[in-house]
Amino acid sequence: xxxxxxxxxERFQKGVPQECDSEMECNGQAxxxxxxxxxTLFAVGCRNGTILIWDxxxxxxxxxxxxxxxxxxxxxxxxxxxxxxxCASSSSSILVFDVLEGDCIKTFELPSHSTKVQFHPKLNxxxxxxxxxxxxxxxxxxxxxxxxxxxxxxxxxxIGAFDTEGTHLYIGNSTGKLYVYSYDxxxxxxxxxxxxxxxxxxxxSFSKCGRYYTVNAADRILRVYSSEEVLICGVxxxxxxxxxxxxxxxxxxxxxxxxxxxxxxICAGSLxxxxxFIWKRxxxxxxxxxxxxNGRGFQDVDWHPTEPSIISLSRNIVTLWRKTPIDxxxxxxxxxxxxxxxxxxxxxxxxxYINNGGKKxxxxxxxxxxxxxxxxxxVSPSNRSANVELEDALLYLPAFPAPGIDED
Length: 408
Prior knowledge:
Elements: H1 2-11, E1 19-25, E2 30-35, E3 41-46, E4 50-55, E5 60-66, E6 73-78, E7 84-89, E8 93-98, E9 104-109, E10 114-119, E11 126-131, E12 137-140, E13 144-147, E14 159-162, E15 168-172, E16 177-182, E17 188-193, E18 201-206, E19 212-217, E20 222-226, H2 227-233, E21 243-245, E22 254-259, E23 265-270, E24 275-280, E25 286-291, E26 298-303, E27 309-314, E28 317-322, H3 368-371
Antiparallel strand pairs: 1-28, 2-3, 3-4, 4-5, 6-7, 7-8, 8-9, 10-11, 11-12, 12-13, 14-15, 15-16, 16-17, 18-19, 19-20, 20-21, 22-23, 23-24, 24-25, 26-27, 27-28
């Protein structure tokens, strides 16, 4: 009975990565990573100033962008259509690249070096930049800068993020307070203290649905909040976190927190060990711990938008994790037998006409098929999906043969 319950639970279990699928090496130490919106490509920023882009399906390197020769890539983000990459370096420069061409199309200088950049979820020419010593700024590549108002005298170590719809800005600082602004006019909608004592807020991560987000603080606790509840509490509110996630045994800090594509799981990397922890979002229980030996020093992690796959960075190794496939052989028809070698099939004449009483179907004389003209020149719009975002999106990069290689 227990075996049947285990098999039943495995069939309906949500996707959680369980094993290492592949490992890819970087030319320099990997610092940050991010999937594009549709999960077809993922980018990795390195300490030597290069950005490496991999194809998710083939696990092959699709493009190398030399962003900066003198500074490391600290943070990067994809635009909504996947055509642009914005990256923040250890200097005060922010660079925007055309992914297809690999060219830098915009350069912005800030008063201090940026700690995080993020494209607007709906706009391809707007991104948020968080600096180490000044207020966060919203950069419009056509209209210039807009500084997010700061209500605290201490503006150091500011972190921030757009919500999933891009209607609100979430800004935190080193005093442990979090502010929620309207994106349109920067009106303060809500504010609350995350920690009881002044603690540095390290990162904010949203689920794909936008209903939940996590706040990673310096007290080594990941707090999960409801977006709706925080807005209801308003300014100087006191919302209670839905979950508090922590390593009770080692008391390790967290980095690179992210949600699964369906928002049911939360993943974060341990700062002290090469381990990835995965929790159930609604219950807060630990469901999986991923460990690896190659590389030292965990850097970043990101979850695939639609599949149970995770990429993690450790020194110069990019590790791709996936769910262990389950072979369910009893699901085939009763007469199914496994063959060691190929054999010639002895097909009976009436084998596939069982539903018709063993008789071949009578074909009606209809000349409509002969008169039908098929247009193979004009491309008609697809009706498979009403998502217009795919029409102008860059999903894949073209592959070019390597020069100087003779094929026999």
